[in-house]
Amino acid sequence: MFIETIELNRCCPGSQVEISIESSALPEGKRYAVLPTKNKYFKVGTRGRGDKARAAMFRSNDAMEFIDCLVGVLTASGYDLPPCVDGKLRGPAVVRTGWWTLDLLAYAPRKRADLDVLAPDLDSEACLSPVKDALQYAGFIDDDGRIVRDTAIAVYRAGNPGLRIRLTRVGDPSQVVQELWPDVDYFGGG
Predict the structure, then answer these.
(1) Strand pairing report for 42-47 and 16-21
(2) Global pTM?
(3) N or C: less crowded end of the chain, CB within 10 Å?
(4) What's the CATH number of domain 16-79+94-180, 3.40.50.11550, 3.40.640.10, 3.30.750.24, 3.30.1330.70?
(5) What burial class does residue 82 get, using C-beta atoms within 10 Å of its C-beta: 0-12 exposed, 13-18 middle, 19+ buried?
(6) Helices 128-137, 61-76: crossing angle, 10 deg rounding
(7) In whole angstroms, what is the distance from residue 162 CA to residue 108 CA?
(8) Domain spans of the chain?
(9) Dihedral-angle region of residue 40 (phi above 0 means left; psi in -120 to 50 means alpha; beta otherwise)
């Protein structure tokens, strides 16, 4: 198991969780640790045979390695995750009530050469969907639909990829809407 840095804030159960995954904890690629990104996370395949065969999306090997990494980090941090069999949780998830926001900071190991600024070679939202899926698949959150807002930032950090994940509990989605757009009537569609 690859585990180096773990930062977890569990002072108030269910209020905020912070997870830091450094490069030594991420699955190894050919030259450096691999961040979970939307382009590498799912692969297309088929389900069924013959006339009943249909295209389907499956988690890639990279995805399963990242999920294993996340499970290792969370388990080492003292979370009792339910067992997962064939993608189905066999017990209650750690987070199973309330509305949450997700803030994600991704450290990209390479920079873009074609820009005049020190920009990462990674779209800011590239890791969002894989991280939300991994949190659910690992049994940390019962349904990623509980995440009503997500924010992603990608920065360049030479040769040292990593992730910081923060989940924060909020009262309800209208609270998030009012913070971002105070002039919008949440229930009136305005």
Answers:
(1) unpaired
(2) 0.79
(3) C
(4) 3.30.1330.70
(5) middle
(6) 60
(7) 7
(8) 16-79+94-180
(9) alpha
140 within 8 A of 133, measured Cβ to Cβ: no
Per-residue pLDDT of the chain (190 residues; tens, 9 = 90+): 222 333 333 333 457 788 888 777 776 665 556 778 887 777 777 777 878 778 877 888 888 888 888 888 888 888 888 887 776 778 888 888 888 999 999 998 888 888 777 888 888 898 999 999 999 988 899 899 999 899 999 999 887 888 899 999 888 777 778 888 888 776 655 4
What radius of gyration, in Å, describes the C-alpha atoms of the chain?
Answer: 18
